[in-house]
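Sample pair:
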Amino acid sequence: MKIRSMGRLVTVGLGAVVALTVAATPAVADPSPVTEYRTLAATGSDTTQDVLNGLGNVITSGGNRVIASWDARGTATIKTKASGCTFNRPNGSGNGRRALRASNGEDLGGTHGGAGFWEGTNVQGCVDVARSSSYGGGETPSTTGNYTYIPFGVDALSLAVNQNGDLPFNMSFAQIQRVYKCFDSRIAGNPVQPRAIQAGSGTWEFWMTKMQINETEISLGDYPCLTTLPRVQEHDGTALTGNPTHVLPFSSGQFLAQSNTAAIQNLTGVTVADRRGPARPVGVSMPGQPVVQPIVGGVTNPNFGLRRDVYNVVPTAKLTDPLIASTFVGGSSSVCTATVDDGGSPRNVVQLFGFGLRTTTVDPLNAACGYSNLRFNS
């Protein structure tokens, strides 16, 4: 296989995205120190773990930090409250929401262990917020349910290719969908191998919905191209290293945050792991539309066809809690308005971490930051 020249890479690379590098430092993942439990414990999505770490470092009430956000990645158990609450780390949006439901006293069934149990551990009262990069109700919004999905950012989810391979940097949605349905094994004459994302990932839930596939069909062997290789952690472009034909979905917010690690470290104290590897998000043309890039001018493109809101999920019954309301609900909430001082100019924290900030509601699935009328029971 021919390898693109360095000149080619410079010409077509994401010129607006500057990769900043810093000396290796310990990753700021969980609250530091881990015994600083704060008031609201959040778990779940890999996509939004970094921005929640940043918001956790910035948002205070009475001089105390409010949000303790626990990363999706990692093998160590987490302890979210001063008493008890030591349990397995929920990895992904779906697992974060399940842990929240168990914390709320629900019985998740299966092997979890009964009412209030998450993976064999009683977690009642241990989780206050679930980070979620997908809406649990799919593409049908609801205004009723035990859990409220409060949007705080806009993300674009594109296909990432190995920039050193021969796959094109612009594709049609139909081409991508046919690859993920295992109908096609080539794009523009070049071989392509789609990769699946870890179970419980909101990114994978959203992607499957758009590709019109589901886990039941995958488990039944309907899409053999998705089971020939191990699943990968979402937004980890290093999986493409040495694999010029492999492709996987990648968040624009994560790609931008991983591209701007120095600024984020300097302004918020959060160390974002740069896992881009050779990944390059492609432009996508939706049916009847021209190609649109997921990142334009160094920011997430809100007009990208495969866009999604990202959420903080809380029990609907707790929307009246003054701290929950002031932190998450409405355009003037702490999450929507949090800023850091960037050389004398305020910089919105959500945008610093690569996500768009929507201020008007188009519909419940394309809503303004702090919108609180999107609900579901899981």
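DSSP finds eleven helices and 24 strands in the chain.
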